[in-house]
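Hi, here's the filled form for the chain we discussed.

Project: internal
Contact: R.S.
Residues: 94
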Amino acid sequence: MKKKRNSISKIDRLLEMPQEVYSNVPKITITGFNETIIENFKGILEYEDYYIRINTELGIININGFELKLENMTNDDIKVTGKIESIDIERSFD
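And the returned structure, exactly as it came back:
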């Protein structure tokens, strides 16, 4: 397994590819206080208009706010809009 990680790392350096492109590591993009895009998510654990919990490979992302909505969901990414007050991460240590 170690050889595979090293070869990915060498390819990454050669092509200058971001880690989230070739792995399941989540990427969170926050635009102001009204939009968040999460790439490489595994599933939605809870969804209310004031609280959303999203499962990822590294843990759970909690989004708190008002009038929260899930938009533009694909197999790879999800867009959350609304009045976002806070985002926190529950990291899993496997």
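Let me know if anything looks off before we file it.
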